[in-house]
Amino acid sequence: MVHGLETKTMRWSLTETVEPARVVHIRTEEVLTSDNLFAQVTVRLHTKQILAIYDRFGRLMYGDPKLAKSVVEYVIFEKWISDTYGRWRIHGKIIPQWMEPRDSLIKTYRVPNFGPLPPEEPDDKDDKSVKKNNDDDGGDEEGTSRPRLATA
């Protein structure tokens, strides 16, 4: 259940119960010996839940922190009956074949709000910005040449 949540924050809340929980199936089974009993109870839960997952920087990735969704789940609870202090625990969940598949998680992101771009100015600077001076051969009187800088 927590695989992939090492660097994320998950906020979940149960907002309301749409229908009362209903026991669908009960089963007891002996394991290895006759005095070692386990019980399993399958319960149908119809609730409204809120789920929001945030990345490590606190930005919302999945879900909605305000939108409650209706969820129908079949949860299997299990207890070791032979233990006097045994506790009920969640053994698993059942997804029936007739149930339509859940919506895939859509990654939430914020659409940037870009303003209009300024109009481009036409480029009138052909080759006029660099003037060549051909008056001089570029050399000094000593015979050494140095580069000339272009002037605008």
Description:
It is a single chain. It is built from no helices and 5 strands. With 152 residues, the protein is mostly beta strands. The protein has a domain at 9-94: Nuclear Transport Factor 2, Chain: A (Roll). Strands 1, 2, 3, 4 and 5 form a 5-stranded antiparallel beta sheet that branches. Keywords: Mitochondrion, Ribonucleoprotein, Ribosomal protein, Transit peptide. This is Large ribosomal subunit protein mL45. It is found in: Mitochondrion. Residues 110-152 are annotated as: Disordered. Residues 125-135 have a biased composition (Basic and acidic residues).
Shape annotation: elongated
SSE sequence, one letter per element: EEEEE
Query: Would you tell me the overall average pLDDT?
Result: 80
What is the count of helical runs?
A: 0
Strand count, sense and closure of the main sheet? 5 strands, antiparallel
Distance between the termini: 69 Å
Summarize this entry quickly.
Its main location: mitochondrion. This protein is mainly β and 152 residues long.
List key phrases describing it.
mainly beta; Nuclear Transport Factor 2, Chain: A; elongated; 5 strands; single chain
Present the secondary structure layout.
Elements: E1 9-30, E2 37-54, E3 60-63, E4 69-80, E5 89-94
Antiparallel strand pairs: 1-2, 2-3, 2-4, 4-5
